[in-house]
Write a structure and sequence with these properties.
calcium ion binding; 0% helix; mainly beta; globular
């Protein structure tokens, strides 16, 4: 786990979970944290180990990252 990141809310509603490299493990998570149906948290497994390596937060939901951090940002996938 890495440093905690602030999101729009405390929920974790996974809008999309994908296996982009067809290894049978998820490596992309698109998450809504405030229940408005729009993504504001994006997480990526870049090395194929099934763990989040990069977390991007878009608190303003304008398509521009407000914060990019290494690790899961204290918000591991369920």
């Amino acid at each position: 786990m890495s440093e905690s990141v602030e999101t729009r809310g405390d929920d974790r509603i996974e809008l999309a979970v994908r296996d982009a490299n067809n290894d049978g493990k998820p490596d992309l998570w698109v998450v809504d944290t405030d229940g408005d149906g729009q993504a504001d948290l994006f997480q990526f497994d870049t090395d194929g180990d099934g763990e989040v390596d990069i977390t991007i937060v878009d608190r303003t939901q304008d398509g521009m990252p407000d914060e990019v951090i290494d690790g899961d940002g204290g918000l591991p996938p369920r």
